[in-house]
Amino acid sequence: MCGMTNTAQQISARLESCFANSGFAEPGVDAVREAAGVSLRTLYKYFPSREDMVVGALDHRHRRYLDGLTEGVPDGPGPAPIHHMIERVAAWMTDEASTGCLFLSALAAHPGSAAIQAAVARHKAETRAVLAEFAQRAAPALSGARRGAIADALFVMHEGQVAASATCGAESAANAAHSLADTILTERMTQ
């Protein structure tokens, strides 16, 4: 969101809320404009197309998600950072995303959009990078390749936790993720 004006940031925050609550197919232009809280002219000034509106909403959500994921991460080696992340995901899914991943929903609603595909790919890549940092904290003595394997496994676990939260509930998905994280760390650290 670097380079966005305060007005554009406010609009993208409102667009995020609109799409999170109503989906990407349902709200028409009038509903989106109303949710954005600006005139149609102002909306199109900052977001000239529906695709731009979706990307703006996803960019806003991306930053909020990563900030929330990394908030209060404990220092030191061991599994604490990873278990903290699992709890942060559970809280996010309970408070912000009970219906699942907004990024994948956007992609499903706009499968042909290169801009939306790029926003989703960026979000997933940066989420995986954060998980790699958690793997570094959890196992600083391991080689980069082994930490990379842990990060890949944690990313798949994370994506599963997000998806399962929508159907099994955030607490149940978090409990399974905690168990899986312990297994991943034990197996990867002893190989």
Describe, in plain words, how this protein is organized in 3D:
The chain has 191 residues and is mostly helical. Helix content is 77%, strand content 0%. The chain is built from nine helices and no strands. The protein has helices at residues 6-22, 29-36, 40-46, 50-70, 80-95, 102-109, 114-138, 144-168, 170-190. The protein is elongated, with a radius of gyration of 18 Å. The protein starts with 5 loop residues before the first helix and ends with a helix.
How would you classify the helix and strand content by structural class?
mainly alpha
Principal-axes geometry comes out as: elongated
Multimerization status? single chain
Sheet-strand content, in percent, reads under 5%
Mean pLDDT, rounded to whole units? 91
In short:
With 191 residues, the protein is an all-alpha fold. Helix content is 77%, strand content 0%.
Can you tag this structure with a few keywords?
191 residues, mainly alpha
Q: Would you spell out the secondary-structure blueprint of this structure?
A:
Blueprint: H1 6-22, H2 29-36, H3 40-46, H4 50-70, H5 80-95, H6 102-109, H7 114-138, H8 144-168, H9 170-190
Helix pairs in contact: 1-2, 1-4, 4-5, 4-7, 5-7, 5-8, 5-9, 6-7, 7-8, 8-9
